[in-house]
């Protein structure tokens, strides 16, 4: 009798685990959106993905996406270019610093569009993006983050996307961390 009761209790729990609220195809579409949006930022000198966007839905938290990018390509050390000059280091550093503001805005835009497309994520859960930045060991990383993580309640993102919330309120509801 005890086993029958345990089975009846466990059956609904196991069926919940088998049916995520957000389908893998929906997550994959958001991954593609992430990749496409970042890829279009600087078409003549694009961001290099070292790890392409990967997403997952975490029941009770929301949708989480991560990637690793190199904001700007530097000069590589090759048999024909055996050292990096100070001027090349400064030029690459300045380029990455200049791009960071636009990259932050692009991440916010991705969160807004992802919240609208991930309609099965509950409104009280989060949409989160985390980006790790790639740097060569010879680069000057002063003032540049190693990681940038943004998250916001889906409800706030949807309201901002539809014009029901102004940008200042959206910004107040977002968590932005740089490490």
Describe this structure in words.
The relative contact order is 0.14. The chain is α+β, with helices and mostly antiparallel strands and 179 residues long. The mean pLDDT is 90. Helices cover 45% and strands 22% of the residues. The protein has 5 helices and 5 strands. The chain has one domain (24-178). Strands 1-2-3-4-5 form a 5-stranded mixed beta sheet. It starts with a helix and ends with a strand.
Could you give the topology of this structure?
Elements: H1 2-18, H2 24-39, E1 48-58, E2 62-70, H3 86-117, E3 126-133, E4 147-153, H4 154-161, H5 167-173, E5 175-178
Parallel strand pairs: 2-3
Antiparallel strand pairs: 1-2, 3-4, 4-5
Helix pairs in contact: 2-3, 3-4
Q: What descriptors fit this protein?
A:
alpha+beta, five-stranded mixed β-sheet, 5 strands, 5 helices, 179 residues
